[in-house]
Amino acid sequence: MAKRIRIIEGTWDCTSCDTKGILARHKKCPQCGNPRELTGKESEFEFGGTDAKTGKSLREGVTDEKALELAHAGVDWFCAYCGASNRGDQEICKNCRAERSTDAKALEEEADPRRPPENRPPPAPKKRGTFAKVMLALGGIFSLCCFGTIAYGFWSSIPHDTTGQVVSTEWKRTVFQERFVPVTLEGWADELHPQSPRMPVNGSGEVAGVQNIRGCASRQRSTRKVADGTERVCSTKTRKKACGTEEKCHTRNKGNGFKEEVCEDVTKYCDESYEDCRNETRYRNEPVYAQKCSYDTYQWKEVTHREASGKNAEPPRWPDLSVSAEDRLRREEQYVVNLEYDGGKKKTELKPKTEQEYVVWKPGQQVALTVTNGGDVKKIDPR
Ligand SMILES: [Zn+2]
Ligand SMILES: [Zn+2]
């Protein structure tokens, strides 16, 4: 495709009289007559902005014949005697008539190799180590999405020690009297195996048994998925497609206050949406049937129960309940220790499993707690 070439002229600022925006074609300040020099940033040209999309310079291209000739005269050199800038194709300093024996710019570059020359790209930044890259990436992720959440989570998990005291203690004990009695249940035929029952002696050694399996009927037990033809499933996707051309420009610094801009039309790619379809197996749920039957067996059933409860200094005891040889007793016990801490502002409770663990706690007793900033009680010890 056809290339469109333009010459863009830069501007410089005179450091002798402070005139700004002098066109590059002037090698002397039109205001004070001082020659443009390498020092004092006089030769760092300003080229104005570029279009963000195409990279095209916002300045008009140079059409003036003399200015174009200057642009093509090669890289400027700086007189080693007077410092003035000179056309690249001249051998004698226009300012002091000295010969171009040595270029002040070349001398300066030799003395300070870190300084990037005007017509050479700046050196690539030093490569970071892999570790540094990973840390940078992690830092990016943290700061983007979840730094606050993680910071809060971390803060709230930090534990600290505090003191509190036992406010009260409570216990509750229940004794259940249970009897092994005949019941009728239902079960799946393939899981029922006839067996004779055996009655308990002093509350143990019993066998529930399975007897008199009867009344079997077909019932739904579960479902299973079965293939049921295919269906067409489509989703909308996007792909890149050529859609005309767009202008792209790049520039090359000519080292004399001018730059050459080359613009060309390149193929432009746009997002195109399309339907992506394929056949997928369809499934339906099918009921699975099996034989369900009634049968006779035995189960422990509660006949009665007694409760006892108390608090603080009252020692835990079991309620009185005596049983005959065919019955059994089942016992349940619950213990609660109520505590307060942070000067009574916060409350928590302990649930000891056994009497032994319960009786060590006495109302008024001081305790040491470990609590997180988020309010989770991690540890409670008697003091
Ligand atoms: Zn000036
Ligand atoms: Zn000179």
Can you characterise this structure?
- This protein has a domain at 1-125.
- 12% of the residues lie in helices and 46% in strands.
- It contains four helices and twelve strands, in the order βββαββααβββββαββ.
- The chain has helices spanning 65-71, 104-111, 130-156, 355-358, and strands spanning 3-9, 11-12, 22-23, 77-78, 85-86, 159-188, 211-253, 258-311, 327-341, 346-350, 366-372, 377-382.
- Mean pLDDT is 87; it is low at 113-127.
- One zinc ion is lined by residues 79, 81-82, 84, 93, 95-96, 98.
Short description:
With 383 residues, the protein is mainly beta.
| DSSP strand content | over 45%
Oligomer: single chain
Envelope shape: elongated
Topology order in helix (H) and strand (E) letters: EEEHEEHHEEEEEHEE
Which residues form runs of ≥5 with pLDDT under 50? Answer: 113-127
State the helicity in percent bands.
10-25%
How many beta-strand elements? 12
Mean pLDDT: 87
Sheet/helix structural class: mainly beta
Query: How many DSSP H or I helices?
Result: 4
The largest pleated sheet is described as: 8 strands, antiparallel
- Catalogue the ligands: zinc ion
> Termini separation (Å)?
88 Å
Radius of gyration, in angstroms, nearest whole number:
47 Å
